[in-house]
Amino acid sequence: MTARMRKSTFAICLLLIVSLVSACSSGGTKGNTDADKATNNGAAATSGASPATEAPSAKKVSITWWNFPTYQALDGEVGKYEKEIIAAFNEKHPEITVNLEMITFEGGPEKLNVAIASNSTPDLIYDAPGRIIDWGKKGLLAPLDDMIPSEIRNDIAEAFWKQSMVGDKTYMYPINTAPFMMAVNTTIFEKIGAMELLPLDRPDRTWSFEEYKAALQAVKDKATDVIPSVFFAKSQAGDQGTRAFIANLGLTTFLNDDNSAVAINTEEAGAALDWIAQASKDKLVISGAAALAAADVNDLFLQGKVAFTINYSAVLKAQNATLKKAEFNEVLLPFPTLDGSPPKLEPYLGGMAIFDNDDADRIAASKTFIDFVANDPVYGSKNLIQTGGLSVRNSITGLYNDPEYEYSELARQFIANPPTTADGWAEVRTHWFPALQRVLLGDATGKAALDDFAEAANQSIANGKAAQK
């Protein structure tokens, strides 16, 4: 069965559910001032290029690249940096035309699903495992193993490869990473004289639920024009923030260790969700969270109107730098846990994938472009800095002269097995935010909503596993 035939089969089902699919958000910086240093580091670390770069085809070919706003906008123009990448690429490969189309985190996922359903997918996408691995399991992508030499494969941790592969085939070329965390507007705490309530004197910055609640109460009491913290449940976008927030308060994980079943429906996690609903009434957490999206609350954070946001990372910090509407300092924090024990963080992992459009020349050209984006001696590190992320490669460090990036490197120790490669993941996610909405709207207790979510999500996992046979 060809890739196009697989897409046609998948399209029949996808057209029935495409309206249910939403975006995932699911990141210059100070680090941009270190571009020259980072470029030199990258040149030393990426000298081993793949065969795609060493032996480019002279045959003219045109490929299409759809990109979320992965890179920081240059001069306020979304897509301008991507055009710079393409121009630099064409200096080395004038035979390959790269047609860029920018898509948004809000509408992009649905647009991709429509493209799959209509057999009109782009050649290239820069995205995350949640969608890419699901496409790989459905046979929609071209494997990338022949473009990954051993020196690169051995330079990237096995955990990242697990998120990039289906069985023994690699479908995502991993490039940048950062642990998802919270962020705090420390300027607010400086103004109210409450910096001691934050765990910044601890190298690992770990803290407890009680410490977190004390910090929220201080903001409510002393900065009456500021919303202490946020929550959101309008859609899938940014759901990694709500997943990890509740899981850590419940001393559990979203799924179990092998991603075969839901684990978050514990009594503690249910109590945490009940607390969020009550805290919204008590003005410790934003009101109306059931109707708010991740982008809504992060925009309030960028306006300086919120003390804590729960969906952040070094990547998002960098991407938001030019979007801030108020002058303030933000600091990354891990999620609080019920007892102050080490948290479990989900990793952001970004990388590129190729849709199998039954054209060997376009697939080969796409691999050449991916190799340039990830491994070019100059643009490899420059591109990393523009994402605001850390490299997945062990040999590439010290890209930024910024304590928050140093902390992100340290916080890698808290990264746990992410749920995003679970069978049926795309469908599992559709059950999550309605469960949150039920609690926020007073229609269910936290434990009841999580139990109902577990039942539906476990069935989706089982269905996804069966579909692979």
Protein topology:
Blueprint lengths: L2 H15 L17 H11 L5 H4 L6 E7 L12 H13 L3 E7 L5 H10 L6 E4 L1 H9 L12 H4 L4 H5 L2 E2 L2 E2 L2 E7 L1 E5 H6 L17 H14 L16 H11 L17 H15 L12 H9 L5 E5 L1 H7 L9 E4 L13 E8 L5 H16 L3 H9 L2 E2 L11 H9 L13 H16 L5 H22 L2
Parallel strand pairs: 1-2, 1-3
Antiparallel strand pairs: 3-10, 4-5, 6-10, 6-11, 7-8, 7-9
Helix pairs in contact: 1-5, 2-16, 11-12, 12-19, 15-16, 18-19
Give the proportion of residues in helices: 40-55%
Report strand order across the widest sheet.
2-1-3-10-6-11
> Taking Cα atoms only, what radius of gyration do you get, to the nearest Å?
22 Å
CATH homologous superfamily designation of the largest domain: Periplasmic binding protein-like II
Strand content: 5-15%
Q: Any idea of the CATH class of the largest domain?
A: Alpha Beta
Helical region count? Answer: 19
Distance between the termini: 15 Å
Provide the low-confidence segments as ranges. 10-57
Number of strands: 11
Q: Architecture of the largest domain, according to CATH? A: 3-Layer(aba) Sandwich
Mean pLDDT: 88
- Report the principal-axis shape: globular
Query: What is the subunit arrangement here?
Result: single chain
Can you tell me the CATH topology of the largest domain? D-Maltodextrin-Binding Protein, domain 2
Order of helices and strands: HHHEHEHEHHHEEEEHHHHHEHEEHHEHHH
What is the SS-derived class? alpha+beta
The main sheet comes to: 6 strands, mixed
Q: What is the domain tally?
A: 2
